[in-house]
Amino acid sequence: VQLCPWKMSSGEPVQPATKRLRLGEMKDELTRSPWPTKVVSRTVSPMPPLSSPSPPASAVPAPPPHKSALVVDERTDHATLHSMPLSVVIFGATGDLARKKLFPSLFQLCAQGHLPRQLNIVGYGRSKVELAAFIAKQCVHVPEGDARLSKADFCSRISFHAGSYDASSSYQQLHALLSAREETHPSRRPGNRLFFLSVPPTVFGTVAEMISRNVRAPAVARGGFTRLMIEKPFGRDSASFEQLNQLTAAHFRESQLFRVDHYLGKEILLNIPTLRWANSVFEPLWSREHIETVQITFKEDLGTQGRGGYF
User: Fold this and answer.
1) Rounded to 5 degrees, what are φ and ψ at 258?
2) d(Cα 62, Cα 216) in Å, to the nearest integer?
3) What's phi and psi for 65, nearest 5 deg?
4) What is the CATH number of domain 79-266?
5) Where along the chain is composition biased (Pro residues) (predicted)?
6) What is the dihedral of CA 283, 289, 290, 296, to 10 degrees?
7) What is the per-residue pLDDT across 148-158, written as a single tens digit (0 to 9) for each?
8) With contact defined as beta carbons under 8 Å apart, do 73 and 227 qualify?
9) Is residue 226 within 8 Å of residue 216, measured between CB atoms?
10) Using omega within 30 degrees of 0 as the cis cutoff, is the peptide bond preceding 53 cis?
11) Contact predicate 152/196, CB 8 Å
């Protein structure tokens, strides 16, 4: 340990201190030392958890204080989250993505124990549908015969709520539905709510605002978290992305927003950076000086029927 010089509170420099101490003498020497010091050691403190910068206070109002509220954030342990009620609301639940990706993925997460067993799933759509017909059509890709979780048990957690994307009354009814499910949960703890937007980008801002004003705030006030997951495409270019980003950021903090592109999660795409940087042939050539255009081809055994607007 070395005692290093510091400045006095008046700003005047002090004389250099070069005295070296054995570890056992450090405490006594610091007590006797006539000059301000700082201790230089090789002890490494753990880094604090990284966090995203928060938007201005005026953008997102802070929830009102609640003495008994349970603070839920990224540090909350897995067991605590499992003991709390969780509702997953899928906007655009009658669409292609929900049928092929979302419901099968939710099933796998439940079967693997990543989500609470008493998960509440609500499909949100603009048209009224019969629940049995909705489940039969949208859960067609949910596997049968899984020993960890039966398809019937999973589907029993699903309900459907018909409403408009821009009507406050529809979201107030949704809030009442979620609150009723949360109040019957055995833990009596606040409810966590996750909203997945599988809808056209033109309604991202409207849906985010309606959720914030009518569904999110009461849940946060009681201590539960709210997350907003937005499926691609999040804009057509930089300008439209920035516009959508401002609309969603006006109602949710960055830590509450998750922008999803399921294509970017494919293994072949994740390996592209490795292919470039680890290959001495490609690395010096993959730059704007040598590449004029990039063409992406989707080779699938399915067509784009009903999905043309997304392409």
Assistant:
1) -135, 110
2) 12
3) -65, 150
4) 3.40.50.720
5) 46-66
6) 90
7) 999 999 999 99
8) no
9) yes
10) no
11) no
Highest average pLDDT, of 45-54, 120-129, 285-294, comes from: 120-129
Enumerate the β-bridge partners of residue 227: 194
88, 195, 208 from 128: Cα distances, Å: 19, 20, 22
- With DSSP H G I counted as helix, E B as strand and the rest as coil, what are the percentages for the chain, rounded to 5? 35, 15, 50
* pLDDT score at 300: 78
Give the integer Cα–Cα distance in Å for 45 and 222: 34
Q: Which helix (H) or strand (E) holds 259?
A: strand 257-260
Q: Where are the domains of the chain?
A: 2-37, 79-266
The DSSP bridge pattern shows strands 158-162 and 120-125 to be parallel
**Predicted model pTM:** 0.68
pLDDT, one tens digit per residue, over 19-53 is 444 444 444 444 444 444 443 334 444 444 444 44
| Encoded tokens for 112 | 């693997």
